[in-house]
Structure formats: C-alpha cells, structure tokens
TrEMBL record:
Any Pfam family the entry gives: adh_short_C2
Source superkingdom: Bacteria
Name listed for the protein in its UniProt record: SDR family oxidoreductase
Family, as annotated: Belongs to the short-chain dehydrogenases/reductases (SDR) family.
Amino acid sequence: MDLGLSGRRAAVGAASAGLGYACAEALVAEGAQVVICGSDAGRAEAAANKLGGGTQWLVADLADPLGAERFVHEAKERLGGLDVLVVNGPGPAAGTALDTPADAYQAALDRSLLAVVRQCLAAVPDMRAQQWGRIVAITSLGVRQPYANLALSNAARAGATGFLRTLATEVAADGVTVNSVQPGVHATDRVRRVFDEQALAAQLSGVPAGRLGEPAEFGALVAFLCSNLAAYITGAAIPADGGANRALQ
C-alpha cells in the first residue's frame, strides 16, 4: 500500500527512542525526509544514524514550550518546509492527585500542553499555505480513562486533546488534518519506569490483547494518519491499546 509519503518532509519529536523512534522509523520506511530531535546529542545522532534514509537530528528541550517551538522552526529550515509534524515529548512525573502539590502542575502543563500548542502553531501556517499538512500528536490513553499514579499527565494531556480537536476544525478546509493517538501500555522504557512488575501485570490484566503493544505497531498507525489515504480523518483521538478502552465514545 502506497501511503503517498515519499519525499514528504516530516519532523518527529522525542524520537531517539520509544514510540517517537517507532514513528520516525515508519515514516523513513515510506520514503519521507525526516528530522528527529532528542534531549541528548549522542542519543539523537545515534538514532538518526540507525534510522538511515538521510534522517537528520537536532537537540531540543521539548519540556520547554519555547524549546519545542524552536524545534519545529529548525526542522523547517533543515527540510525547506514541513508537511508532517509528529508531536511527542517527555511525560510529566508520576504521582497521585492527593500527593502531587498544586505547584507541580505548571511544569506539567508546560511540557504536555503548552509545548504541544506551540509546536502546532509553528507548523500550521506553512501547511495551510501549501494546502496540505498532517499533525499527529502522541498523547495517552489516560485522556479517556485516567491512569492511577499519573495525575499530572492525565490533566495536562486532556487539555492538549481539547486544543488539538479545536485546531482540527479550524484548518480542515485547508487540507490540514490534526489527530491524536492515545497509546496504552507499550513495550517502552517509560512504561517500565512508571510501572513496577506488579503494577504492569495489573495493567495488562485489563488489556484484552493480553500483551504490551509493540512500538512498530504504533508507528504504522501514525504513518497511516500522515498519509494521503487518511485525508478525511481529522479531529480524531484514536486509542492504540489492545482493547483496554471499552467506552462507547
């Protein structure tokens, strides 16, 4: 299946490992020109070299809204424009609602809401001008059903989902789609850091598929949403969770 991504210019945030890397890998496999970023130069360069296909890399602090915005502008300069933006970044610290102080929420909003807003607003003008663009944000299944011990993420990413859906309605007529993908538990280092063995087993007990998701499966979904074939899908928030979410909406 030809996704029509050959030669498209794509920026993928936080792609030196995990789900971000999987998304970049899927886009490179489809022939896209990709710029990734990471917080560590060595890891970002190593990831770009492993991805191949002429993948370029940048260092960016995606926990800082201005740093996240700067990543998009620098990626556009490297690529000579931008067709695809995969919004991704480091999640907030773990903690329950009762144990997390109110002062901790601003940093969580910076990295998981305001950084998303600034990346999108940096990418959209060029996409609208060329009448083609794809924005896919990696959020969390916690937007649908809050995760225990991730109060900051649950709150901040819910706000990001509201922004993304609002933006989608405003740019749909310009040929720009805006969607989010909500990962459940996947085989990534972050999942292993957040959940100990017992907690992870408890999470998997609620996953009908009975296993962790594979990052490559997630990357393939994101690549499809970036494709020509997905031109009529926008404003969607799609769970990729092995059936864990069972809500009717």
